[in-house]
């Protein structure tokens, strides 16, 4: 039995106003088509297209639509602007999302943080595509605007190479993003296992201690204060 249908995964609405308009039109047309086909029993999920939830105020909300969820994939690693942030700034930005998302989910659409991780770089092997490098170390192919932010050594791969300070950051970043998920209707970590990228790997996070065995445990309960 299918309870929720996600109509499209990760549309890149941020590319331009034309792309954003096309994504909005697709959501509206797809919503109408599905409702006409199956009626009102199926919940539909749309995505923010990496525009941020405030770009979707009053979109497919009740009473013009019903049974719609917003899916947001929360990463701060796929642009130079985001990669320029310090570890503290990554945490501060995550803190800023908590009231924003909570307000959106209460006034507009129930919201799920459908993907997130503790990664603060795009260094993971083939994250950007098979055989493609990363923005972080300036090896991303086909992107003439890529800066060099630093080396990937000690930031991805086996956690045996992670410093204690980096593991502390991973724990803080995990906790603050958990709070985002708790402020809305839930969250889904990406991913349980990753190929040689322990900062993305939930099972390795449990082993390494930056993800707690009890997901409600907090070492930094006042991290946003």
Automatic annotation (TrEMBL):
Alphabetized UniProt keyword annotations: Glycosidase, Hydrolase
Organism: Sistotremastrum suecicum HHB10207 ss-3
Domain (Glycoside hydrolase family) ranges: 4-122
A single cellular component GO annotation: extracellular region
GO BP annotations listed: glucan catabolic process
Keyword hit for Amino-acid biosynthesis: no
An example molecular function term from Gene Ontology annotations: beta-glucosidase activity
Protein name per its UniProtKB record: Glycoside hydrolase
Keyword Glycoprotein: no
Protein family (similarity comment): Belongs to the glycosyl hydrolase 5 (cellulase A) family.
